[in-house]
Specification:
about 160 residues; 6-stranded antiparallel β-barrel; two-stranded antiparallel sheet; 1 helix; about 30% strand; extended
Length: about 160
């Protein structure tokens, strides 16, 4: 448990984000594993390209691999979220590990927020649809019972049709 005493933790403002330029140094923050006391850890990334297709994003390279973590510039301004983008079939990127078709990218925060909003709306619609299906017409069907297997003269059972 984190003892903050009189200090308050400030949340990340997802309403504003900045666009980096190629060559900009970025940072991501994560925590090490429990075996390392969950110590905070900062990793660096560099913007290597601005991509427009298949969507707007920045290609990055560096020592930070915390997928789905927020990424900041050196002024502490939110840039986006670290992700990976798969290239078109037969096209290789710059690669992560042994897969040259996966490119580490930072998705702009505005796109991430828009996607989260759409997911929230779809989830609400799905729950509403499920609730309507569950209510049905208010009449419950009685379960039909399968006939039991009938005993044979030999002591076993014979399936009924």
């Amino acid at each position: 448990v984190l003892n903050l005493k009189d200090r308050a933790v400030k949340g990340v403002d997802l309403r504003t984000g900045v666009d980096p330029m190629v060559g900009t140094e970025l940072v991501g923050v994560t925590r090490m594993a429990r075996g390392f006391d969950c110590a905070p850890m900062v990793g660096r990334l560099f913007v290597t390209a601005k991509l427009e297709k298949p969507r707007a994003m920045w290609s990055v390279n560096g020592e930070f691999s915390g997928l789905a973590h927020p990424i900041y510039n050196l002024l502490g301004q939110l840039v986006g979220v670290l992700s990976v983008q798969e290239g078109s079939e037969g096209v290789t990127g710059g690669g992560m590990g042994n897969n040259n078709n996966m490119l580490p990218v930072v998705l702009p925060i505005a796109d991430v927020v828009r996607s989260l909003k759409m997911a929230e709306e779809r989830a609400a619609e799905a729950l509403e649809s499920y609730a309507e299906e569950d209510e049905g017409d208010g009449e419950e069907e009685e379960p039909t019972e399968e006939p039991a297997d009938e005993p044979t003269e030999e002591g076993g059972t014979e399936e009924t049709e």
